[in-house]
Structures are given as C-alpha cells and as structure tokens.
Design a protein that fits this description.
4 domains; globular; 15 helices; 332 residues; Arc Repressor Mutant, subunit A
Amino acid sequence: MEELARFGRASLAQVAELMGRSEEQVAEAAVRLEGDGAVVRGMLAASAVTALISEVEPARPLQDAEALLRNAFRLARENAKADWASMAVPVLKNRLLQLTDGTFREKDFGAPSIWHFVTLFPGLVACEGVRPSERVRLREPELIETDDRDESAELDPVGKGRIRDDLWRAVFDYRSGKTYAWDETRGRASDHADPDSAGIRVPTITAAELRTLRQEFVRTQETVSEHDAARLAEWVDGAGATAALPRFYRPLWNAHLKSHAADRLRTFFIQAGLDVPSDLIAHASPPTAPVSDVEHARRRAHAYIDAMTGEELGRLSIELSVIARVRISDEG
C-alpha cells in the first residue's frame, strides 16, 4: 500500500485520457469515490486513481507487460550495469520504449502513467524512493540470471531462438508457488492462484529437479580443471544463479536450460493431446561452443596451476595489476 501511495498518483489529464472522459468528469467522480482530498492541484491521490481505472479494460494483457519488464532488466544486465537489478523509473520507461521500437504505452495496460504502471507488478518489482528519484528494484534477480536465452548463432544452432516467455515462466517459476495452466482459447500459459482452476496444468519444475538438472549439466562437461570443478560444485549446491558459474560455462548452461524446457514442454503438449505451438523453438541437445583464444589460454593456465607443487606455486609470478583486480573482486 505504501508503494502504491507514493507511485500510484496520476494527473487528471492522464486519467481522463485513459478513461475517455473530461477532466471535470474525472474530478467529480474522484471526489464522489474518495472524498475532498482525492484531487489536489490537478493530481489524483493513488486511491482515487485505482478506484477510477478499475473499470478500464486494458488493450493488452498484463502478462505481456511483465515479459517486457523482465526484458528491460535483462537488457540492463547484458549492458554490464553495476546495479542492473535497480533502475530509475524514467530509465525503465526508456528501456521499454527501446524494446518495443518506441511503441510502448502504459495506457495499453490500463495504467495512466509509468509510475502507476510499475505498481501493477508487486511480485516482480519493488518501488523505492520518492519523486524525483523513484526507482524500481527487481525482487528476484536470480530469475533473470537463469533466463538468459539470447545466445549467438555459434552457441545456439537455431540462432537467437527463444522459448516463449509465458511458457518459460510456466516451466521455471517454481519460487513463486504459482500454478500455471494452458489456456487453449488464448493459446498461452497463465498463472492461477487456485490449483483447481480451469485449464490443463503445465508441469513447473521443482527446486529438486532443477538441482538434478545442474548435476546433469556438470556431468556432461568433458574437460574440467580442478579450479573450475570446485566452482561448479559450489554452483550445483548453491542457488544455481548463472552468474555464479565460471564465464565459459554460462552460455552452455543457458542452452542446456532451453533444451530441457523445450523437451519438457513438447512432452506436455503431446501427452495432453494438444498441438505443440509453432513458435516453440528448441535444439535436441546442448551445443558445443567454440572456445576463444582467451578461454584456451585461461584453461591451460588452470591446468598448469593444478599440476604445480607447493614449491612451484611459491615461485609463481603474477602481475600486481591482476592481484589488485582479484582483491577488488573478493572485497565486492
């Protein structure tokens, strides 16, 4: 409620445009619903905005907007932003416009402003700060870490293939406790609070199954140095975030996840007697990625260090600039 109170306000003009009414009509309705304090200097209180727009039928489903929000944060992560899981609201708006070639309009999703728009997803983002420094923070950034499906053609035989966002969430969103069902009429997977609600339930992976999947992935790696083996073991037993993997294995793990999701979904549709969606793209097995010269050198260095005795390690010379970078990383 506090987030809505701070972010959910909107101007009379914004709400009037959304509702297709005059500002005078909106102001009268707001006062009638929420009292004299509903309108102050042309701005509507958050409670008044919520009450007024409840009758507005969005032109697009909120699931589409949620997918856009996730992609906006994914874009920030791919651009190597230090605190990619948090961004100013105007920056978020710019990213949404960038992702949609300038066509994004919060009004399409039943929101009069970008600030009110972000309050529609309390399970996905937290609203922080006050104007003019409002920010939104991703509540579970690890979900974005494992949802990195855009890989280069060299790492993915089908190019930049993706599992559809609604189906990807249905398979991997086990943390939320939501139940996902296939809506044959709309041709998409939707979440339902009631496990007995209509629709054919999509089998969401469990935490135990995902851990088994991580174990299987590690077993398929043919050549692993002792250095990488230790990090992979920690990753298997930990939260399983992609960022915790040695860099070389991240695209392979993402491809492995996509392959598993596609196989799981195909099995689901076939067993349910449904047509497999034509936009479900997958590869049969994790691809073999070409190793860059830098990665070759890095892996050779790991192998040399693994073979060294204690005395040889004591004579090992490492540049001070490298030591400084490792220290900074450890402290961070």
